[in-house]
Amino acid sequence: MIEAVCQWLASGDAETLLRWQCDELAARQTLARRRLAGWDISGQPLGANLWLRLPHGVRSAALVEALASRGVRVTSAEPFCVGSEPAPQAIRLCLSAAATREALDQALQALLEVLEAPPLVPATL
Asked: What CATH number is attached to the domain comprising 14?
């Protein structure tokens, strides 16, 4: 990897590759923010990730499981928490993991379908 980076720097390709990556991340952020408009999301404009805070009553574990059954992998907030406070009910969306923007769009569509599915909301006792 170090050799590849050194070659990019020597050839001048590093700047081109960095510009491409920033443009791609910006396009993916725009796509995700447009698709998830109205949901509680946050993240850096050129970041590779977005956080989605879940509506009251929706558990991140249930959402992670439901999405996995559709072939979409997301991460709950639990692995990113420190200390003894409970993790927020949120999921982390890695926008750069999808091979293409089209694949990302399909994953976002699956996310929206699962978010709107009644089984995610626990029945009141």
From this structure: 3.90.1150.10
Query: How many residues comprise the chain?
Result: 125
> What's the structural domain count of the chain?
1
pLDDT at 35: 97
Q: Closest Cα to residue 94, out of 116, 61, 119, 64?
A: 64
CA angle (80 as vertex; 77, 86 as ends), nearest 5: 60
What is the residue range of 90's domain? 2-120
Q: For 74-122, how does the pLDDT look when each residue is reduced to its tens digit (9 = 90+)?
A: 999 999 999 988 999 999 999 999 999 999 999 999 999 999 886 665 5
